[in-house]
Amino acid sequence: MSDALVQARGLRKSFGEVEAVRGIDVDVARGEVFGFLGPNGAGKSSTMRMIACVSPRSGGTLSVLGMDPGPDGPRIRARIGVVPQLDNLDAELSVRENLEIYGRYFGLPRRHVRAKADELLEFARLTERAGDRVEELSGGMKRRLTIARSLVNDPELLLLDEPTTGLDPQARHLLWDRLYRLKREGVTQIVTTHYMDEAEQLCDRLVVMDGGVVAAEGSPAELIGRYSTREVLELRFLPERRPSAGELGRHADRVEELPDRFLLYTADGERTLGDVAAAGFVPLSSLVRRSSLEDVFLRLTGRTLVD
């Protein structure tokens, strides 16, 4: 990919005997939102730390902004923004001070940093809280401030590691809105998440990771079309009336049996539900939904994203 801001070939990361990243190939194009989707321990954060130039690779090649993170780490870090998995704001400082002091680390002029702080406070919807100490903010506000701080140096590449973990639905959607705005402004983003809906909402393209390897790559729609059906019928049964997966499988393209329910993969969930009922199986509850990236992960690995 000639316009790739990040390019990895055979990238590896080991911690002693444990190989967290096992030879992955990745290309991230300028202007896209690229995702690493997978459960905890899949190798997502280890990959991000190598791209952020804070953890050396154990093998393979890696190029970030056309440079090698080994010798060129400081030059790369000056041109990227990083949103860590856990907020590392200075709780004793005010909201504005967190932005201005961080901006000074990049050697930016004081006047420029003050103007940039005003812009970022508006972006994060925190202008009215500028003088408050960080410890007084809600979790969603802290997360928005962390993202705002990562933008103080006008980065060409923004890395977001599990950006909405622990946030309530309203805070998550507000954060997604801020990330959409950055995308419209042309900021390239790399996001790690184990939330399938977040990956579908944010990412132009993504890789599904499991056990340190890439299981699949493509846009959310491409992956769902390749590895799943248009709809999924979820069925729950009373224990004493629970059929076997084989019995249900006669009425669907594929069946996954989970501890609490069956997933029937089909082009038409309502029709399949009718076929199941006509065969004499009476579910305790039923749900017809569209296929998601979690169904892709289940197809590829045999387990759900969040175990």
TrEMBL record:
<keyword id="KW-0067">ATP-binding</keyword>
<dbReference type="InterPro" id="IPR003439">
    <property type="entry name" value="ABC_transporter-like_ATP-bd"/>
</dbReference>
<keyword id="KW-0813">Transport</keyword>
<dbReference type="GO" id="GO:0016887">
    <property type="term" value="F:ATP hydrolysis activity"/>
</dbReference>
<keyword id="KW-1278">Translocase</keyword>
<keyword id="KW-0046">Antibiotic resistance</keyword>
<keyword id="KW-0547">Nucleotide-binding</keyword>
<keyword id="KW-1003">Cell membrane</keyword>
<dbReference type="InterPro" id="IPR017871">
    <property type="entry name" value="ABC_transporter-like_CS"/>
</dbReference>
<feature type="domain" description="ABC transporter">
    <location>
        <begin position="6"/>
        <end position="236"/>
    </location>
</feature>
<dbReference type="InterPro" id="IPR050763">
    <property type="entry name" value="ABC_transporter_ATP-binding"/>
</dbReference>
<keyword id="KW-0378">Hydrolase</keyword>
<dbReference type="GO" id="GO:0005886">
    <property type="term" value="C:plasma membrane"/>
</dbReference>
<protein>
    <submittedName>
        <fullName>Polyamine-transporting ATPase</fullName>
        <ecNumber>3.6.3.31</ecNumber>
    </submittedName>
</protein>
<comment type="similarity">
    <text>Belongs to the ABC transporter superfamily.</text>
</comment>
<dbReference type="GO" id="GO:0005524">
    <property type="term" value="F:ATP binding"/>
</dbReference>
<dbReference type="Pfam" id="PF00005">
    <property type="entry name" value="ABC_tran"/>
</dbReference>
<dbReference type="InterPro" id="IPR027417">
    <property type="entry name" value="P-loop_NTPase"/>
</dbReference>
<dbReference type="InterPro" id="IPR003593">
    <property type="entry name" value="AAA+_ATPase"/>
</dbReference>
<keyword id="KW-0472">Membrane</keyword>
<dbReference type="GO" id="GO:0046677">
    <property type="term" value="P:response to antibiotic"/>
</dbReference>
